[in-house]
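Minutes, project check-in

Agenda point 3 was the complex the collaborators sent over. CS summarized: four entities, 240 residues total, and the question is how they sit relative to each other. Sequences were read into the notes so everyone works from the same version.
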Amino acid sequence: MSHTHDEVQGFLPLPAATLHILMALAEGDRHGYAIIQDVAERTGGRLRLSPGTLYRSVQRMLDQGLITEPRTRPAPELDDERRRYYRLTSLGMAVARAEAGRLEDLVRMARATGLVPRKA
Amino acid sequence: MSHTHDEVQGFLPLPAATLHILMALAEGDRHGYAIIQDVAERTGGRLRLSPGTLYRSVQRMLDQGLITEPRTRPAPELDDERRRYYRLTSLGMAVARAEAGRLEDLVRMARATGLVPRKA
DNA sequence: TGCGCATATATCCAGCGTGGATATATTGGC
DNA sequence: GCCAATATATCCACGCTGGATATATGCGCA
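CS then shared the predicted structure for the full assembly.
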């Protein structure tokens, strides 16, 4: 289950919401509403994914194969029937890593200009 | 010539082209076409700003006060009359630093998920 | 001389990603 | 019984982008 450089690179640059969703799913399977909360929490409330952005991003990511909808649902007794859960694919992980690398390059370039101090 | 946190933060997230233009101008005054070349060079040819993106971004940045058009033109004997030169403002620098910081936070978050290794 | 390419700026269109509003339905607290 | 939170889904308007197009000058080369 390996992915070619071009196959992964073709997704970049990743839409902002997509990277956040991938990061939220890195810890485990989550449903849509939980992803919104997770992103808000992780960003200290600075990024609040709107429902429109979240559900359209999720649909696109399913189509692209970055995430899947697993058959098994966690904790049936605590479950909410309405929920739809999502899981990272190996392609999704590879794409997230590639995007993070791209962002690192960007930060490195910014530092190289001398415009940006090397730490805050 | 200081800028408030909110004044600067209000520009974020910065459009991709805008950050690249700010980085290109960090080294000194440049005209539009030179910015396109500079960005292509710095990114190893991976990002080629289209004319549409470049000139619209520049116009927006002038309106926002991130850059200015200096009166003095460099090297009059080597100059091309058609060129329009642009220069970073202190606001532009502050905004570029803030955006770089935002990207760093993003990379840090990606690392924290364990999804992204800490160096390549 | 004339052709094409690089230089240089500017405008237009179509496409995509986003926020916000709206809709629908269920659950829990007061 | 009412409102807020939970949960998903769709629609509209806006902003950013690439690519095409337009215009004009300068340079190399056949």
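Noted in discussion: The longest strand of chain A covers residues 85-88.
Follow-up: revisit at the next meeting once the mutant set is ready.
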